[in-house]
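User: My instructor asked us to take a sequence, write out its structure as tokens, and then describe one feature of it. I'm not sure where to start. Here is the sequence I was given:
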Amino acid sequence: MQRWRIAVLFLLFGVCGAAFAQQQAVEAKDEPHHRPKFVNDVVRVLDVEVLPGEATQYHTHSLDYPYVMLSTSLLKNDIPGKPQADLNITAGLVGYYRASQGAYTHRFTNADSKPFRAIGIELLTSSPLGNGAAPLAESAAVKKVLDNERVRGYRLTLAPGETIGPLTLPGRSVRIAQSAGVIEQSVNDGAAFTASLDVAQFEWRETAATAVLKNIGATTMELVEFEFK
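Assistant: Let's start with the prediction itself. The structure tokens for your sequence are:
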């Protein structure tokens, strides 16, 4: 009888523990490792960084959410009520979470020896966000990596000294630096400016612009462009 009671207590503790964890989950924007870096009426950009050995709190993704992984990392993923799973993340992976799938609650631990880094973009409204721009023409330097009902994503790859464009970059879009480097951008009116970019640095673009991009650094540059439809 005593053993039966202990077994029941352990079972109840496990069920209650999972329920408690789920009840205590915060929205992704409120999880300390998911730092809101930009917000307006249509998007919230989250900069996610987890150091080796650190774990996030349980948190919930409940909005449409394109993202790019900026590090190659091993994560331990915990979903309430399910066994822990390994996630092998590859730098440059572009993905998308659909809110219509239902809220996704989890926490994860960085089991790697290097920091984990990602940029995610919460879409704050279900209304169309963009201006119906035509897709960018693909080339060796411009590759489409995501295309669904709400977002197009492109990876721009520029070797040292390489130039691409002119590209008409649509309004209501975000550019993210997947790698560090130095880029020169010439825009519609002929004005040019130089930017030294770090990994995870991003730029919100409200209106369309036609630009020529040149890698004036010593290493290959990779940028991810998310265009909202």
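For the description part of your assignment, you could build on this observation: The two ends are 63 Å apart (CA to CA). Try explaining in your own words what that tells you about the chain.
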